[in-house]
Records
---
Amino acid sequence: MKKINKKTSKKQWQSPILWILIIFGVLYLLSNIKIPSTSAPQEIKYSDFYRILKNNPERIAAVIKRENLLEGRFSDGSRFYLNIPENDRDLLKLLRENVEDFKVELPRTLFTQLLIYFGPILILILFWWMMAARGEQLGNRIMSFGKAKPIIHSESKKATFKDVAGVDEAKEELKEVIEFLKDPKRFQRLGGKIPKGVLLVGPPGVGKTLLARAVAGEAEVPFFSISGSDFVEMFVGVGASRVRDLFAQGRRAAKSSGKGGIIFIDEIDAVGRLRFAGIGGGHDEREQTLNQLLAEMDGFDPMEGLILIAATNRPDVLDPALLRPGRFDRHIVIDRPDINGREAILKVHTRKIKLDPSVNLKSIARQTPGFSGADLANLCNEAALLAARNNKETVEKEELEAAIERVIAGPERKSRVISKREKEIVSYHEAGHALLALLLPEVDPLHKVSIIPRGVAALGYTMQLPLQDRYVMTRQELMSRITVLLGGRASEIINVRDTTTGAENDLEVATQMARRMVTEFGMSERLRNVTLGRREGLVFLGKNLAEERNYSDTTAHIIDEEIQKIVDEAFNRARSILQENQDKLNLLASALLEKEVLDGEEVKKIVGMQEKQVQEDKEVKKP
């Protein structure tokens, strides 16, 4: 039996010649179908018309001559037409003499005739062509609906480990993957297998995506990047189809390169959540997509050299089947950089920025504890913009420190109008914080104090910067921090003789810190070495989803009493210290009213204090 090629048959039906023949046939049939109509002109004989024109011309109301065709209207309203011979002078003479309304129209040009006869056909052909083109595009979109559209990074966008800083441990972990992609036979000859999947876990902005790109850049292999949300669609099965297509593209690229390839899925928690955890059960689109992803990872051939790298800041919600060995064999935790890591990141981001030679990046790194790589990149960009705004040739320390304050507290709002009374209250409030930060030895050194509004609600701020990163804190250090937080409220009561709403954030932070001391750190005198309340939060995001109360009402009452006791103890200590140093508090408040912004050294000179001697821990050199 002869096999019919459907594709060829479809092209034949799309041929314009075939459609032209069909249109001509339809027009021919329509032209031969006579439809009776009272309004259509009737053809009459030449002899009949000549007789009427000669004997009864009053019956003819109007006549129009177009070349060899006469069209007209009788006095009763009926219309007629007839063909006449060329150069019929007798007929034309009678028409001029007997018909009052007689007109002669110019003959039509060739172009006009062609347009009249072929215009409708051309319009139909154009309409058909537009519909066919749109149908083909729609068909292509429908057929590509289940195709994955990853971002393929070219050589011009290639990143290497030189572009990544502050994550030395993670780079060491990934060097083995790079070596395998460069020389897989070195591992395969001993029976070793490279991990099929690498999961990068860490808070937002620490460089997970950049690290994955750097791995591909170092190994010089194809790099496919896609987001987990690109797999999620309303229609069941589309996500699974895109997963299959993505891995098919990766295998083809790995085979063509001869070195393997890397597939990077960002925010994999969008598609890799725990199954049967929501509405929809086993028929949920996300679940079907996850099942396909698990099947594809099981089908990896180690000889292909295709490696899946995924990133997430929510490892707690991922399905256990996705995390097991054989799929994501290696989990690499990327945390916020320490002081040395921040300095290295600042060096990377300031390569293309003209820095003043006096800028000490080590000092800037010390002033940015808790900053991620993205925060530091934003800081460098803000500093460059500030320097350009001030028409400077280079970026100086002033712009970098101003950028730090902008990132932490928001932009200055010098346009906000504050009354003299409110400004005095704010100055005493911030002076209380600043003076306690100088007098208490357990807290971070004072860096700057300001009464210029910043951000949405801050009317002033006191900035303390640590000399080094801290990972463990004692009870006395926490108590001193709470004391500094309550210094603003204590100063208000001493000098303003009233309380204000300006201490809202201070009270919130102090209460939260005291609660954690009681319920998490076991620093309460009555409850001591126990933790109370089981918290289920978002890992790396620092937010609690829910807290299970695993203690009695009596214990809850004791918790409240212990929190109140800690806060009261810190507040009484702050008020006592400020009352003993009332003269220094007044000097500092007056200076703030005059200058609005004071750095740590200026505050020490105003209050007549020597700089606190803080011995920095010596850096331990790696052997």
---
Amino acid sequence: MRGARDEVQKYNCVPIRDEHGFEEDRMAEARKDDAQAKKAPAQNAPEAAPVVDKEAAAAAEVDALVVKARKALEEFEKLDQETVDRIVAKASVAALNKHLVLAKMAVDETGRGLVEDKATKNIFACEHVTNYMAGQKTVGIIREDDVPHSIYEIKGAKKCAIEFRSFSKTAGFTGVRCGYTVVPKELTAATLEGERIPLNKLWNRRQCTKFNGTSYITQRAAEAIYTPEGQRQIKETIDYYMDNAHTMKQGLEAAGLKVYGGVNAPYIWLKTPDGTGSWRFFEQMLYEANVVGTPGVGFGPSGEGYIRLTAFGKHEDCVEAMKRIRKWLK
């Protein structure tokens, strides 16, 4: 009986009863037809579409885009200030024309925020920031005193920007970890209900709840940075390390290597020759030249094929390291 009911459900048929009152299985013919249909070749059946591994396809597309981005970055870093300004100006106009479209896309993709807020941010970034910084130095790290050092020097920034500051590079606080965040009282954000709330108090509550504060000795060290003596020492320190970076850049280029940075930054990115992987080149340089660096891939997949060298060290050591590398690569 149960088998009959199963067959009923399978063939969407209605069982009938014979003269004795028992369910009669009248579906043998239906089963026979079904079996023949399975054996017969499909008539005019469309060809099966090829199976596409969407994840693999997406990964391949991303890899291709990363290769293009690396090439574009290499070319972009060769440009002078005038060319960079011209590119930024054209990009700014294009983005400004699509500020609302981009805002809607951001909300649709993340499911967070309000279109109006993101549109305002886009206008501010494309129009006000670009116009304010036009003609000012943006290639390399800004060290001059007569150019902006804070985003809040731009009119209107206090209503839409948060600034993060760190003493890591300025005063050699690497490892000590001390910095601060500027959240203007004028800055507000919208809740899911659309209510505007000030972020300053919210950020303060978050910090007081989840952070025990920087150690006292670290705070005193940060305080000393702003004294006249501290400022003098910082300038001397930065000049010393930038001289190291200049020495390293010249030495590596003399060895026939392609390098980036070292002009306004205390770090140099060395392009590994012949497509050698970051870790492989790191090991070769360590064991064969006795020079240590940091594999670029350790900073993310885009760092593959690079080695990062730091100018934070003694000048004599930098000179010696360049000698070893040149001798090793001959």
---
Amino acid sequence: MTAVVTAATNQRLGHLQTRGDVAAALSVSEKYLTFILYGPTTKRTYRRFVIPKKSGGTRTISAPRKELRALQDRLKAILDAVYRPRPFVHGFVRDRSALTNALPHIRKRWVLNLDLEEFFPSINFGRVRGMLMRPPYEAGPAAATVIARICCVNNELPQGAPTSPVLANMVCSRFDGQLLQLARRANCTYTRYADDLSFSTRARDFPSDLATPVEGWTGAHIKIGPELDRVIVANGFRVSEKKSRLQFKDCHQDVTGITVNRLPNVRRSYVRQIRAMIHAWEKHGLGPAEQHFRQFYDTRARSKGVPPSFRLVIKGKLDYLRMVRGEKDRLYRRLHNQLHGLDSTLIPYALPIKPATRGGPSDAVWTQWAARYEHSIFQVEVRNAGVISGGTAFAYKRGLLATAEHVIVGDLAVEAPHLNKTSIKRISVHPDVVTGYDVAVLHLPGASPHMPYIPIDINIPERGEPIAVLGYPAVPLRLPTLVVAEGIVEAMVSDLRGQLQYIQISANLAGGMSGAPVINVAGSVIGIVSEQTFEQTAAGVPARAFHQALPVKHIRSVDVNSVVDVHTYTRSLASKRQARSAPGVGELLARVGEAIGNLLRALGLRPRRSG
């Protein structure tokens, strides 16, 4: 199977043209594949059962039987290898979750959640087959027909087949692109988790092209905007009105079940349930607590009818709490230690609990973003007259890296996360760089079309808002290591002219962090680390360093089509500095006069005053 997946990754699906090609890729004979798909047992290839929905009603699950399931598992490995998920798609994607889907919507003024009705059944045989034949997959018509036949039943994607999630994401690629463009025009953030669509913004009023509240601004009832409705209907989907809601910042806001008002969190009822389950175990013992839970609270329907262990249910809920709030969270650690006291085989060790500190983002937030962006942030190595210095740059568009202009003082190369250094020859700078707009763009040669990039947020941050700086400190004799420096927005400050505004941050930064991205809890870049400044103090009083960042909106003023060679630019900088430092004629005459005066005084003569 490894060879099959590798071939599929390198060639997409273009090497699959016939039914025989598909059979070979699945490591079965063409005769066996034909028998499974068209033989007399076709009608018995799925086992169907009904489960209740949380919101009411029922959901039909179609679970493939053993032989078909084996083919679908093998096919899923091939599809996973060729599918490249876009950054805003989080459902059914490796290393992404409900938490990563919720993080971009934290601390927004408005959050819109939409639910698509009958998501999997809306994707039929023809849509799957057509998607497989179109770029970038380009499977042959016969092969596309066979793959769609393996994955569809009754002209729809079945809920319960292992191939349905990845195929749904592949089919929705164009749909996602259209929604992203609509969101960008409305200055909104967009994500999708399976059939859950989420839009958020910091704008004063929510864009009417997306939705408008009905019966008050709380958004309990909404009307879908005409532009958004047109895109959804054109792609063959329908919105479930009773599950759609527009949430204002003063009300409870959640995305895929995670509270996003200020920091990622779970509902209070979720924590109360964990506490109640642990308390029942402590007071009544494991057996009675488990019996009571199954009788009154475990209402979930299961295909095999065997409920899970009460112990594992508690641990699963606790693991989810840790994912959302972070392993260092004091509430999580208290509950973890309580469960350890009840069953040391389930929880083998206790965790130390540190004293309470002021509320801020959990470590899970910054850990998630650092892991997500580790391939989007680069160490910049600068060589100038034998002296090596460093900086940081980040990808904000494919093939384009943003950094601070003052980093560019010599030969440039980017290293981490690349295994080898890559020389930078071409750059673009801000047109008003001489007046303090400390931003430049590096053109990365040979950049992959799939290079990940970090989204930007041009809105001005609020004072006290949590931030983190992701960058590469310049530490001698060590391999480049991406670090996270946490802090808050202390103030928005202006230069003496009142024209240029900076974001003053409290993060403790080191050399090499110039040009690094300043991100908010939603994972968007809000600023680019610029040169630090120091306060003026009385003699003997140490001056505090003030770290400042240029708002990221200024990167849009850089004309990336106006490209200059690095060596040409650094030579022009050197000549300008030399010209600025060279004295003019008037200054030379003043210096000569001052020297003559000093000489006359040394000889005991008084210089003659003019006039």
